[in-house]
């Protein structure tokens, strides 16, 4: 048995000559060979994107699988005027990775730290301060989740990915002025929602 028999990515694809956008169009017709060809082209790229965010290959591989499942399910929503297929896939992968980072790693780590800090609360001033800071962080996360999707997106790309507003504009195919406006509105709303936390820090 040859390597091409065991590895589907090693064998030639009859769709290799098609443009990415044509493959997405074929996905809307439920052509599984189209999503397989996109996987062949971009799985490694998406794995690198997800691994950079999550830090582990195992979680990154899960994100890649979820990315192509979502792309398959939402192929009819793809708009080639807003982004290329590769950018569309990267944005899905980043969103999935950030969600996983927040819902798994951060939540699990927070739960473990909170458990330890609670045990030390009555004997350690540092433990009490750590619990207080964790409560503030949780409030910030909650306020962030209450933002409109487009405002939340620009903050997540800025804070989690370290992108500048100009980079966010290019990545999301959004005018720079719109990115700046969304950022300003999001920060104003966060300040209103977190005014108690801000007073406690002063």
What is the helical fraction, as a range of percent? over 70%
Give the beta-strand count.
0
Secondary structural class: mainly alpha
Rg measurement, Å: 21 Å
Count of helical segments? 10
Uncertain segments of ≥5 residues (pLDDT<50)?
Answer: 1-9
Order of helices and strands: HHHHHHHHHH
Strand content: under 5%
Biggest pleated-sheet summary:
none
What general outline do the C-alpha atoms trace?
globular
How far is it from the N-terminal to the C-terminal residue, by CA?
69 Å
Instruction: Report the average pLDDT across residues.
Output: 78
How would you characterize the overall build of this protein?
The structure is a single chain. With 202 residues, the chain is mostly helical. The protein is 76% helix and 0% strand. It contains 10 helices and no strands. The protein has helices spanning 3-6, 20-28, 32-54, 57-73, 85-120, 125-145, 149-159, 165-172, 176-193, 195-201. It is globular and about 60 Å long.
SSE topology sketch:
Blueprint: H1 3-6, H2 20-28, H3 32-54, H4 57-73, H5 85-120, H6 125-145, H7 149-159, H8 165-172, H9 176-193, H10 195-201
Helix pairs in contact: 2-3, 3-4, 3-5, 4-5, 5-6, 7-9, 8-9
What is shown here, in short?
With 202 residues, the protein is mainly alpha-helical. It has helices spanning 3-6, 20-28, 32-54, 57-73, 85-120, 125-145, 149-159, 165-172, 176-193, 195-201. Helix 3 (32-54) packs antiparallel against helix 4 (57-73) and helix 4 packs across helix 5 (85-120).
What keyword list fits this structure?
mainly alpha; 0% strand; disordered N terminus; 10 helices; 202 residues
């Amino acid at each position: 048995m040859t390597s091409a028999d065991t590895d589907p990515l090693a064998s030639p694809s009859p769709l290799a000559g098609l443009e990415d956008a044509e493959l997405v169009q074929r996905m809307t017709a439920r052509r599984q060979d189209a999503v397989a060809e996109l996987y062949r082209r971009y799985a490694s790229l998406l794995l690198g994107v997800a691994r950079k965010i999550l830090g582990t290959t195992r979680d990154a591989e899960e994100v890649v699988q979820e990315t192509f499942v979502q792309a398959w399910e939402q192929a009819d929503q793809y708009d080639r005027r807003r982004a290329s297929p590769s950018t569309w896939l990267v944005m899905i992968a980043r969103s999935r990775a950030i969600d996983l980072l927040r819902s798994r790693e951060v939540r699990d780590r927070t739960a473990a730290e909170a458990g330890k800090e609670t045990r030390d609360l009555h004997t350690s001033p540092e433990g009490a301060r750590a619990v207080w800071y964790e409560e503030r962080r949780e409030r910030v996360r909650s306020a962030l989740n209450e933002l409109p999707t487009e405002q939340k997106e620009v903050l997540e790309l800025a804070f989690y990915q370290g992108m500048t507003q100009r980079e966010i504009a290019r990545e999301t195919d959004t005018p720079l002025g719109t990115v700046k406006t969304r950022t300003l509105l999001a920060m104003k709303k966060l300040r209103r929602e977190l005014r108690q936390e801000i007073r406690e820090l002063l």
